Amino acid sequence: MSAGYQLALQQLTDSALPTGAFAHSLGFETYVDRGVVGDEGSFGGWLGAFISQQLTYSDGLAIRFLYEGADLARLDAHLSAQLLPRQVREASTKMGGRLIEIGTGVFPSAELEAYRTLVTTGRAAGHQPLAFAVVARSLGVPFEEALAAYLFAAVTSLTQNAVRAIPLGQNAGQRVLRQAHDDVATAVERVPYLSWDDFGAVSPGLEISQMRHEWQRARMFMS
């Protein structure tokens, strides 16, 4: 493993990276409001479903397709189309926009600059998993390492948000993260065997909860 890209990957997935992930629950706050998620076990169950569904069939597949050389503008448009809940779609582009901005200054590359141009000229939305994949690939990070790092970074951000929102204790949050290792590993193994027909095949329950969040009377998170 190259120490250069390993350190860069750690920086890219650090929870302190200012992409705004702390402001998003990606739907779990709806379950908290309804009393379905309220402790370590119930949040861990939600997180496992989120990993095996949305992170696998949306973000994970998008990263794989980009690594395989898919047209970036087309892939960006497909991702916009299959992210049905408005708040989740906007969360992806807000965090993606910040990642493009940070990456342009910290990890510049011709590929990232091309994506930035697509976004600034309105030809792409600028989604988080694509921005991450563009930077990771330009750094020479192998696909499986990039995918695992992205998925676990997303899981870590959501767990930190759950620690505040439910609330969970810090030790409980760490136990949830440890239990998520197997789900992330399963997702990394599954993504290479999926096809374009699988792209966006997310459980309706997750998407409905994300849509309901927009109309929730009181909330801590933007999504």
List the helices and strands and how they pair.
Elements: H1 3-12, H2 28-33, H3 40-67, H4 72-82, H5 86-106, H6 110-120, H7 128-138, H8 143-165, H9 170-190, H10 204-213
Model description:
Helix 3 (40-67) runs parallel beside helix 9 (170-190). It is built from ten helices and no strands. The chain has helices spanning 3-12, 28-33, 40-67, 72-82, 86-106, 110-120, 128-138, 143-165, 170-190, 204-213. The chain has one domain (25-213): Urease accessory protein UreF. 68% of the residues lie in helices and 0% in strands.
Radius of gyration: 16 Å
Unreliable residue stretches: none
Order of helices and strands: HHHHHHHHHH
Give the count of structural domains. Answer: 1
Biggest pleated sheet? none
- Annotated CATH architecture: Orthogonal Bundle
Highest-level CATH class = Mainly Alpha
Structural class: mainly alpha
Count every beta strand, where a strand is a DSSP E run of 2 or more residues. Answer: 0
Beta-strand fraction estimate: under 5%
**Which geometry do the CA atoms define?**
globular
The CATH topology is Urease accessory protein UreF
What's the gist of this structure?
This protein is an all-alpha fold. Helices cover 68% and strands 0% of the residues.
Keywords:
223 residues, mainly alpha, Urease accessory protein UreF, 10 helices
